[in-house]
Every structure is written in C-alpha cells, then in structure tokens.
Amino acid sequence: MTDEVHPLDGNAAAGPLSRLFTSDVSGAVVVCGGCGREGAIATLALYGRDTGLVLRCPTCGTVNLRVLDTGPTIHLDLRGSVRMSVRLALD
Q: Residue 79 in contact with residue 33, Cβ under 8 Å?
C-alpha cells in the first residue's frame, strides 16, 4: 500500500472558484512565484476537495493558490503567484 496522493488537474477547481469569480477562471494564467512558469489554472495540480483547495505548480511544486470556502466567506491566497491574468469575454 502506498501513501502517494494523486492530484486532480486544475479544471476541477472551476466549480468552487465560480463562487468567487463571475467568469470561468480555469483558463486564467498564473505566473508561479517559485519558478516563473506561466500557465492556466487548469494546468496546476489540485489537492483537496470541498472547503479547502490547494493548487500547486506542476513544475516546481510551489503552492500558487489556496482557496478556503467556509460558506459565507471565501478566502483566496495567491501569495505563491507573481500574477494572475483573466481574459474577459467581449460583448
């Protein structure tokens, strides 16, 4: 038996993040604060479920985003990221 944890891809965070953002942010680009990798949230490694999510850089393992959903409050921690860019749909 192994203790390995197999993360999901960041696409699985789209539902929980939809409570916070009005558009789908799985395609938003995050620049990793650890290694400078630039990629969509969908390409990050997702750990956790339900109330607590941790999204890590697939290259260096730095935690890029943390989301804690307590119900009435959502806490978003981006301290492992240099920048997050969200492309808005044009009307």
A: yes
Please tell me the distance from the alpha carbon of residue 76 to that of residue 68, in angstroms, as a whole number.
7
pLDDT at position 63? 97
Rounded CA separation 36/32 (Å): 5
- Report the length, in residues, of the chain: 91
Using DSSP's 3-state secondary structure scheme, residue 54 falls into strand
Q: How far apart are CA 31 and CA 41, in angstroms?
A: 10
Residue 56: C-alpha distances to residues 42, 78, 90 (Å): 11, 11, 30
State if pTM tops 0.85.
no
Other Cβ atoms less than 10 A from the Cβ of 88: the count is 7
Tokens coding 21: 């953002």
